[in-house]
Amino acid sequence: MSSSGLNGKVALITGGTKGIGLAVAQRLAKDGALVAVNYGSDKKAADEVVHHIGADRCIAIQADAGSVAGVAKIVEETVKKYGRIDILIANAGVLPMKTLESTTEEDFDKTFALNVKGPYFLIQKAVPHMKEGSHVVTISSSLCHSTAVTPPYLLYNSTKGAIEQMTRVLAKDLGSKKILVNCVAPGPTATELFMRGKSEQIISMIANQSPMQRLGQPDEIADVIAFVSSDQNRWMSGQLCMVNGAAFPS
């Protein structure tokens, strides 16, 4: 096992069966954590995660991470299995490409439900089961800090801006309970969600925004999240960690 301070910890990850969430689940499990992964509808992917990590060290929980009832179920089943939560990763999200003109009320409500309301109430439900020294990690996007962001990211960036403010204030709110709260903001990362609908030309153009001339990989984001949520981080809270290969300045 790793000496990273994750051995025996209980980690709950929403959206934990694909992309960055999957990489985080695998990394934390590799470092000795007991893992609960939430998923929306793809049971096959969830079963594969449990099989890969091991049914004795991983459970998959189907629930809508954008509803209060859904996040309550996720927390309840995690605590029923493991007795507590040490690490909470509010990762589930959706990336709609919507300009102001193209956004419908349904688009707005669905996106804010999964990207903002879900994390907000997930944390609310989980905190009673988290002890001193526990960690909450939220997920934003480096696009919130890019001057080159394009209009179709309007709705998505609006939700991630909310997440960053939520993180800053929650760090104050939960600091009295000695719970640390931080936000990780990946840059362009080679996940299925990111690649969807983009041409090779567009992907290449985005990759070249980094001086390293490539996209990030999910496991590279997971490495940072693993540190932020481990016992090696005892004092950093309320902070935004930009993980983007210098694609965008902070």
TrEMBL record:
InterPro entries: NAD(P)-bd_dom_sf, Sc_DH/Rdtase_CS, SDR_fam. GO terms for molecular function: oxidoreductase activity, acting on CH-OH group of donors. Gene3D superfamilies: NAD(P)-binding Rossmann-like Domain. Keywords: NADP, Oxidoreductase. Pfam families: adh_short_C2. It comes from the Eukaryota. Belongs to the short-chain dehydrogenases/reductases (SDR) family. This is NAD(P)-binding protein. It comes from Rhizodiscina lignyota.
